[in-house]
Amino acid sequence: MTSQLAARGRRAATLLGALSVLLTVLSGCSTSSPVPQEPELSTAAERAVDAAWVQTGPQSGGYGRGPVSSAPASLYATAWTLRLALDNGELPRGLDRKRCVGWLTQIATSPGTGDPALTQLDNLALAVQGLRSLGATVPTSRIAANTEKLRSGSLYRGSPTTTPNWSDTYTAVHIISQISARIPDEVRDGISNRYARSTDNGWNEDINSSIPVWQSATLILPRADRQKHAKALHDLVDAVWKHGTSGPADGFKIGTLADVRSLALQNGTTVPNIPASWFSSLQDSTGMLALRARYGPDPHTTAKAMELGYRAASSLQRFITAYVLPTGWPSVPRPMPDPQDSYYGLALTRSWGDSAREAALAALTQQWVTHLKGTASATLVKNSSNAFYVAALARLLGVPFPKSLAYRIHAALEEQALKATPTNPLPIYWAARFALLNQHPLKRALRSRIAQLAPRAPVDVASVMAFSEVAKADSDPAMGHTAETLAGQLKLGAAYRSQKSVNQTDLLSTAIGLAAAHATSTERLKSIQSFVSGDRACILPLTTPRNSCDLNTRYLSLAAERDIDYPINPHD
């Protein structure tokens, strides 16, 4: 029984650390005309940070990067998240209803253009579901024709090359019923005959076909005819309920139980209530339930659980709003917390005075510190950004960070910085940043090396980053002037670009350039308008295709607006 229940489940589907990748992306982008809008950072940032939180244990957690706005909308995620969003009575502001309707209509018209991981019939069903949720016009004749193409006698198949079956037949009949089209007589007769055999033989022959047969019959047969077989249905529902609610919850069980509950109610049969505690193992910090324990949030499982009486946490609507795209929602993998994203999350939450999760983040940071103790120096250098963010989190959260470990990291980073070249000054950046955090003076040899490199430094954001950090770490006005001069050459309009040869501005370069130029508040707000709207903060201007909008860009937008570098002064 458990395996049969599982078989019925539907298929669910470092900005600074990767600077070289960013520069490559930017060099290939064309210039776009910005659309200035007044940014509304706080509310949007709070939603993004809340959605990025991942609980790693009873008393530990951190921030992880979720999907970015360059990811395409997922039909599965969009159809089911729309249902969840509308349970709250309104669509999130970031959704462009016209574009979403156009996309769903295209799939309904041509299901082969939908999600390749789904069957054509599932693509049709989800597109119709989404259009109906939006109250949009459904292309009835085209949907009916597309459904008919998948018919084989009295049954339907998911795609032209798959085997006809009862599960797909119910899906097709449900689609036809939703658009008020005519169900072919051959299909009606096939359902009636199989329903009669199922009720005569009892439900135990095959649950995978029994449930969709009963669902199909419920759509086409009068209730009086179905009432004759109430005992058989009661036995089916009772058996599914007992097996489904035994053992831990998962998305497959929840989907089946919700379908059986709906079937029971339509046929005058009641089902027991499910205690809220049964869903607890699937609860996610996003407010959604996962398909299975420790999996990512799944909107289908969540919607079906709500049919069973599950009450979602208040964070659900914030999560839905944080991750909406103009056309819908992306697939949401479970983000694993990492030091960089957790640092950004801490910076953002401290900017508005929220410390509710700092104890849990401190517990996870302690685990990261312990891991660093056993890490070889060569690995520390290779993952210099990771080492810095763990040390920064430890300092900010009051987590003990051994002096011996700090000196070992400092020495390893300085040794690497001595090998820096004009075209790769980032080792200097990380060495200087770690030195500033831990109040370690830069070695004379490194100072000499930096002085040699400065006159030959290329005009790019990496050079500005390196020399700005050296100026702060070594209290060196000359280096600060070098950084400011280089930044001035990168300015393009109100914002900044990554290289002088690039005609595309970006939020990272803008945040760094504004800091190096000691920009005023007015200049800062003007500079970020092309990257930030009330619901989005993106690495490239908002009108640019293939954009990236995530927790890091939320942090950068705040850094650009307010010149924050550390959540608190590291010397305090």
UniProtKB/TrEMBL annotation:
Keywords: Signal. It comes from the Bacteria. Residues 1-27 form the signal peptide. The keyword Signal applies. This is Uncharacterized protein. It comes from Streptomyces guryensis.
